[in-house]
Specification:
By secondary structure, the chain is an alpha+beta fold. It has helices at about 25-35, 65-70, 105-110, 135-140, 180-190, 215-225, 250-260, and strands at about 10-20, 40, 50-60, 75-80, 85, 95, 115-120, 130, 135, 150-165, 165-175, 195-205, 210, 235, 245-250, 265, 275-280, 285-295, 295-300.
């Protein structure tokens, strides 16, 4: 007899507004406990000193996490000039200092160099694995960690304000794998004044934005039976992460075949012109993710959702 899974079979996306100081794992665990969910995962780690959008996938939504993680992200961050730290944020030891402070015009003239496809060396204190170990674990143990540069895409980088000569506030829209801390470090070096991030807030992950977000305190308050205990209101559907994919509505028979892992033929007016990834639904219920090739939909992921 199969062991019964602990918790409730919760399915969908929760867009959590992560608080300052919490790790992404801690925030995930807290949200999972509120929902008493069987299974959960998050789409993209946020540093403890960062706040903002942390999409959490419950149950069958975990099968769509990669689509959220691959989406464009947006950040608002503050850079402190004059000091570079070991961690590229306010938590680390100061490793370089400078008396110079950049003029606003100098900062603005530099932005184009950090827009588009750029080569970026990730921070030594990052979650990237080196020989099976996290880089930040090696760095904390005193090892010198030099990660290889990688190509990242920064769609837009804006200087929002310069509150004083020591600080500048930016907004960035960037692709997967971009480190804002590395961006601050490299701009500081290029300006000859050094720099590190003092505040960082993620404002968007793929289709998920601040308007969708709820804090852990708000979630706990709503979960209180005295307030109705209605936390389901904060759940978005499993397919919420699939906005960049085409939807294909299928018949009951085709839905059954897809759920069993079988390819189906796409016929008549429902036949898409393009090939590539799609998600299939039957009467509004998500059935499968798949690839259309030569007139057939081949399922790559199937979903077990009541409906």
């Amino acid at each position: 007899m199969a062991r019964r899974k602990k918790g409730n079979p919760v399915h969908g996306w929760l867009i959590l507004d992560k608080a300052l100081g919490a790790t992404s794992t801690q925030a995930l665990g807290a949200a999972k406990r509120v929902f008493e969910a069987q299974k959960a995962g998050h789409a993209g780690t946020l540093d403890p000193l960062a706040t903002g959008i942390l999409p959490i996938a419950f149950g069958e939504a975990t099968k769509t996490v990669s689509f959220a993680m691959d989406g464009e992200k947006a950040y608002r961050f503050t850079v402190r000039w004059g000091m570079e730290t070991a961690t590229d944020d306010a938590e680390g030891e100061v490793v370089n200092r400078a008396d110079k402070r950049p003029a606003r015009a100098d900062i603005e003239s530099l932005l184009h160099e950090f827009t588009g496809e750029i080569s970026q060396r990730p921070p030594s204190f990052s979650a990237i694995k080196v020989d099976g170990n996290r880089a930040y674990d090696l760095a904390r143990e005193g090892e010198v960690v030099e990660l290889a540069p990688r190509i990242v895409v920064i769609e837009e980088l804006r200087l929002v304000e310069t509150p004083d000569p020591h600080t500048a506030v930016f907004e960035a829209e960037c692709g997967k794998g971009t480190y804002v801390r590395a961006l601050a470090r490299d701009m500081g070096r290029r300006l000859g004044c050094f720099g590190h991030v003092t505040k960082l807030r993620r404002t968007r992950v793929g289709p998920f934005c601040e308007d969708d977000a709820v804090t852990l305190d708000e979630l706990r308050e709503a979960a209180d039976p005295a307030n109705g205990g209605d936390i389901g209101q904060f759940l978005m559907p499993v397919e919420a992460a699939l906005t960049d994919l085409q939807e294909l509505q299928v018949s009951q028979q085709d839905a059954t075949n897809l759920a069993m892992g079988r390819a189906i033929l796409i016929r008549g007016r429902d036949a898409p012109v393009a090939s590539g990834p799609v998600f299939a639904t039957f009467k509004g219920r998500l059935v499968a993710l798949g690839e259309i090739e030569k007139g057939a939909l081949h399922p790559t992921r199937v979903f077990n959702l009541a409906g």
